[in-house]
Protein backbone atom coordinates (compact mmCIF):
# COMPACT_ATOMS: atom_id res chain seq x y z
CA UNK A 1 0.00 0.00 0.00
CA UNK A 2 1.12 3.53 -0.71
CA UNK A 3 0.42 6.99 0.62
CA UNK A 4 -3.33 7.43 1.23
CA UNK A 5 -5.29 10.64 0.92
CA UNK A 6 -8.08 11.61 3.30
CA UNK A 7 -11.72 11.91 2.27
CA UNK A 8 -12.33 15.53 1.35
CA UNK A 9 -8.76 16.16 0.19
CA UNK A 10 -8.22 17.51 -3.28
CA UNK A 11 -5.83 15.86 -5.68
CA UNK A 12 -4.40 17.02 -8.98
CA UNK A 13 -4.98 14.32 -11.62
CA UNK A 14 -2.51 14.29 -14.51
CA UNK A 15 -3.25 12.04 -17.47
CA UNK A 16 -0.17 11.27 -19.53
CA UNK A 17 0.18 9.81 -22.98
CA UNK A 18 3.70 8.63 -23.81
CA UNK A 19 5.13 10.82 -21.02
CA UNK A 20 3.48 14.02 -22.23
CA UNK A 21 0.63 15.65 -20.38
CA UNK A 22 -2.74 15.05 -22.03
CA UNK A 23 -4.95 16.75 -19.43
CA UNK A 24 -4.75 17.99 -15.84
CA UNK A 25 -7.62 18.67 -13.46
CA UNK A 26 -8.44 18.87 -9.76
CA UNK A 27 -10.67 16.24 -8.15
CA UNK A 28 -12.20 15.68 -4.71
CA UNK A 29 -11.16 12.52 -2.86
CA UNK A 30 -14.11 10.27 -1.98
CA UNK A 31 -12.07 7.28 -0.71
CA UNK A 32 -8.49 6.04 -0.62
CA UNK A 33 -7.17 2.89 1.03
CA UNK A 34 -3.62 3.35 -0.25
CA UNK A 35 -4.26 1.14 -3.29
CA UNK A 36 -7.71 2.11 -4.61
CA UNK A 37 -8.36 5.85 -4.93
CA UNK A 38 -11.84 7.20 -5.77
CA UNK A 39 -12.26 10.83 -6.80
CA UNK A 40 -15.02 13.01 -8.24
CA UNK A 41 -14.56 15.80 -10.75
CA UNK A 42 -16.57 17.72 -13.33
CA UNK A 43 -15.92 17.14 -17.04
CA UNK A 44 -12.47 18.65 -17.55
CA UNK A 45 -12.76 19.38 -21.26
CA UNK A 46 -12.97 22.94 -22.54
CA UNK A 47 -15.91 22.04 -24.78
CA UNK A 48 -18.38 19.22 -25.26
CA UNK A 49 -16.96 16.14 -26.96
CA UNK A 50 -19.17 13.84 -29.00
CA UNK A 51 -17.71 10.35 -29.42
CA UNK A 52 -20.69 9.11 -31.46
CA UNK A 53 -21.71 6.63 -28.75
CA UNK A 54 -21.72 9.20 -25.90
CA UNK A 55 -21.36 12.95 -25.51
CA UNK A 56 -19.38 14.45 -22.62
CA UNK A 57 -20.29 18.04 -21.83
CA UNK A 58 -20.15 20.78 -19.24
CA UNK A 59 -22.04 19.72 -16.13
CA UNK A 60 -21.16 16.03 -16.47
CA UNK A 61 -19.67 14.54 -13.30
CA UNK A 62 -17.06 11.79 -13.31
CA UNK A 63 -16.58 9.46 -10.34
CA UNK A 64 -13.20 7.94 -11.10
CA UNK A 65 -11.57 4.81 -9.70
CA UNK A 66 -7.78 4.55 -9.92
CA UNK A 67 -5.58 1.76 -8.61
CA UNK A 68 -1.91 1.71 -7.78
CA UNK A 69 -1.74 -2.01 -8.61
CA UNK A 70 -4.11 -2.40 -11.59
CA UNK A 71 -3.62 -1.52 -15.23
CA UNK A 72 -6.86 0.42 -15.69
CA UNK A 73 -9.12 3.20 -14.43
CA UNK A 74 -12.93 3.15 -14.34
CA UNK A 75 -14.87 6.41 -14.66
CA UNK A 76 -18.60 6.52 -14.03
CA UNK A 77 -20.18 9.39 -15.97
CA UNK A 78 -23.39 11.17 -14.97
CA UNK A 79 -25.08 14.14 -16.59
CA UNK A 80 -25.89 17.41 -14.82
CA UNK A 81 -29.17 15.96 -13.49
CA UNK A 82 -27.45 12.86 -12.05
CA UNK A 83 -28.56 10.39 -14.75
CA UNK A 84 -25.81 7.85 -15.42
CA UNK A 85 -24.56 7.82 -19.01
CA UNK A 86 -22.21 4.88 -18.46
CA UNK A 87 -18.60 4.07 -17.62
CA UNK A 88 -15.53 5.13 -19.57
CA UNK A 89 -12.65 2.79 -18.82
CA UNK A 90 -9.03 3.55 -19.65
CA UNK A 91 -6.30 0.94 -19.85
CA UNK A 92 -3.38 2.59 -18.05
CA UNK A 93 -0.23 1.82 -16.18
CA UNK A 94 -0.89 1.62 -12.42
CA UNK A 95 -1.50 5.09 -10.99
CA UNK A 96 1.17 6.79 -8.86
CA UNK A 97 0.66 9.44 -6.22
CA UNK A 98 3.42 11.90 -5.28
CA UNK A 99 2.88 15.09 -3.30
CA UNK A 100 -0.83 15.40 -4.00
CA UNK A 101 -0.44 14.71 -7.74
CA UNK A 102 -1.90 11.51 -9.18
CA UNK A 103 -0.17 10.48 -12.41
CA UNK A 104 -1.85 8.07 -14.77
CA UNK A 105 -0.31 6.95 -18.08
CA UNK A 106 -2.89 6.13 -20.77
CA UNK A 107 -2.09 3.09 -22.94
CA UNK A 108 -4.69 3.85 -25.68
CA UNK A 109 -7.03 0.89 -25.13
CA UNK A 110 -10.44 1.94 -23.81
CA UNK A 111 -13.82 0.41 -23.05
CA UNK A 112 -17.15 2.26 -23.05
CA UNK A 113 -19.90 0.59 -21.04
CA UNK A 114 -23.31 2.20 -21.55
CA UNK A 115 -25.84 2.27 -18.74
CA UNK A 116 -28.46 -0.38 -19.50
CA UNK A 117 -28.21 -3.60 -21.48
CA UNK A 118 -26.24 -2.54 -24.55
CA UNK A 119 -22.91 -4.36 -24.86
CA UNK A 120 -19.58 -2.65 -24.06
CA UNK A 121 -17.58 -1.11 -26.90
CA UNK A 122 -13.85 -1.83 -27.17
CA UNK A 123 -12.14 1.32 -28.40
CA UNK A 124 -8.84 2.40 -29.92
CA UNK A 125 -7.36 -1.06 -30.51
CA UNK A 126 -5.91 0.30 -33.77
CA UNK A 127 -4.25 3.19 -31.91
CA UNK A 128 -2.78 0.74 -29.41
CA UNK A 129 -1.37 -1.49 -32.15
CA UNK A 130 0.08 1.55 -33.93
CA UNK A 131 1.66 2.89 -30.73
CA UNK A 132 4.56 0.43 -30.92
CA UNK A 133 4.19 -0.58 -27.26
CA UNK A 134 4.16 -4.26 -28.23
CA UNK A 135 7.67 -3.88 -29.67
CA UNK A 136 9.02 -1.45 -27.05
CA UNK A 137 7.61 -3.12 -23.95
CA UNK A 138 6.00 -6.51 -24.66
CA UNK A 139 5.21 -7.15 -20.96
CA UNK A 140 3.34 -3.83 -20.65
CA UNK A 141 1.44 -4.61 -23.86
CA UNK A 142 0.44 -8.01 -22.48
CA UNK A 143 -0.70 -6.35 -19.22
CA UNK A 144 -2.77 -3.90 -21.27
CA UNK A 145 -4.60 -6.65 -23.16
CA UNK A 146 -5.24 -8.51 -19.88
CA UNK A 147 -6.59 -5.29 -18.34
CA UNK A 148 -9.01 -4.80 -21.24
CA UNK A 149 -10.30 -8.35 -20.76
CA UNK A 150 -10.64 -7.79 -17.00
CA UNK A 151 -12.61 -4.58 -17.63
CA UNK A 152 -14.93 -6.49 -19.98
CA UNK A 153 -15.52 -9.04 -17.21
CA UNK A 154 -16.27 -6.26 -14.67
CA UNK A 155 -18.62 -4.63 -17.19
CA UNK A 156 -20.82 -7.73 -17.18
CA UNK A 157 -22.06 -6.69 -13.71
CA UNK A 158 -21.92 -2.97 -14.55
CA UNK A 159 -19.07 -2.59 -12.05
CA UNK A 160 -21.10 -3.77 -9.05
CA UNK A 161 -17.88 -4.52 -7.14
CA UNK A 162 -14.89 -2.31 -7.87
CA UNK A 163 -13.05 -3.10 -4.62
Description of the structure:
The chain is of the alpha+beta class. It has a single domain (10-155), classed as FomD-like (FomD barrel-like fold, Beta Barrel), CATH 2.40.380.10. The chain has 3 helices and 11 strands; from the N terminus they run βββββββββββααα. The protein has helices at 125-130, 133-136, 138-155; strands at residues 10-17, 20-32, 36-42, 49-50, 55-56, 61-67, 72-78, 84-92, 96-98, 101-114, 121-123. Strands 1-2-3-6-7-8-10 form a 7-stranded mixed beta barrel. It has a two-stranded antiparallel sheet with strand order 4-5. A hairpin with a 5-residue loop joins β7 and β8 (84-92). The longest helix has 18 residues, at 138-155. This is DUF402 domain-containing protein. It holds the Pfam family DUF402. Residues 49-156 form the DUF402 domain. GO terms for molecular function: hydrolase activity. InterPro entries: DUF402, FomD-like_sf, Ntdp-like.
CATH class: Mainly Beta
How many structural domains in the coordinates? 1
**Biggest sheet descriptor:** 7 strands, mixed, barrel
- If you consult CATH, what is the topology? FomD barrel-like fold
Using DSSP, what is the number of strands? Answer: 11
Low-confidence stretches: none
Overall mean pLDDT stands at 94
User: What is the straight-line distance between the termini?
Assistant: 14 Å
The CATH H-level homologous superfamily: FomD-like
> What order do the helices and strands follow?
EEEEEEEEEEEHHH
Radius of gyration: 15 Å
The percentage helix is: 10-25%
Beta-strand proportion: over 45%
Within the largest sheet, what's the order of strands? 1-2-3-6-7-8-10
User: Judging by the overall fold, what is the CATH architecture?
Assistant: Beta Barrel
Q: What structural category do the secondary elements indicate? A: alpha+beta
The backbone outline, from C-alpha atoms, is globular
Count of DSSP-assigned helices: 3
